[in-house]
Write a structure and sequence with these properties.
single chain, alpha+beta, Endonuclease, Chain A, 2 domains, eight-stranded mixed β-sheet, 9 helices
Length: 346
Amino acid sequence: MSELKIVADAPNPRRSRPLSKEFWSLLNGSSSLTAAVGYVGAASVLLLDAYLKDNPGFKLELFIGMQYVEGFNHRQIAALKKLDQTLHESQQGSLLLSTNFLHHGKQYFFHDENGHTPAAYIGSANLEAISPGYTSTYETGILLPASHSESFYDFYKSNVRILGKTVDLEEIKPKIQEQSPLENFDQVEKIDDHLLDQIKTAKRTFSFNIPLKDTPKSNLNAYFGTPRVNKSTGRSLRRPWYEAEIIVPKSITTQNGYPSKLEPFRVVTDDGWNFTCSVNGQNRKNFRSHKNLSILGAWVKGRLEGQGALETGQPVTAETLSSYGRDSIDFSYIPDIDIWYMDFQA
């Protein structure tokens, strides 16, 4: 790369190259990454943790500039503990936190095997923007060529890295109230309580009880499945933490009224989220959020995490569902407003 390149996660469905695609493309061609950001999210931290585990020769330095002072939530701390453990056990890099100064910059430096920095991103994107499907914020920045990347990396080493310290994460307590991970998706809407109350009491014409499965490497545990492999580099990339689908048994999908795979449909959840789902595959068995598979997973796994039944980064098991108090979703159709209602209240 020899020229400056603008990268934008614009809310435009015709965009061809969002930041996440640029990031992973550059990462797959690099030997190490230095990232300095203000904030991290659990899903993005888990992607980096899995990347290190699946690609043992890769190195990472992650600097977090805002959250030690402003506070982390429980999900973020759990994910950072996993990453920190991986970095220490494999000696693949370091995790640095700014403990006294607030650093709001976002800088990503991609290094080659000789320690040079042929590319860098300078812009607005915090770490959550590297997660495929992250679309809630319009991020924009510039990809720098080597002629500029080296000087910016020198600036980072001299002025930013020195603010960071290695911190015992066991001593960090959550300060920030948990939010639903659905806040990170612009394809999701939150409806008002009055409308939700009306939907809950509306007349249904079809109702199904869809079981949740604890399959170790699929369904809600797709993150632990076989990684995608880049054929040109041999690098492995896990599916995002919240990517998931529900495999519905044939005894349900063949019943009268079950959705057709020809048309996506809108759903409203018992806690007031509104998004689009679809069914496909043989016998319409694959129930998923439409176009972005992380939305449905964020709703289900987010509920489990929020109730303390699921530790961020750990698989969903039978014990997880038992601890939550529910192992199925009630799914019913409301014809008057053409909405499917999903109930996962414990």
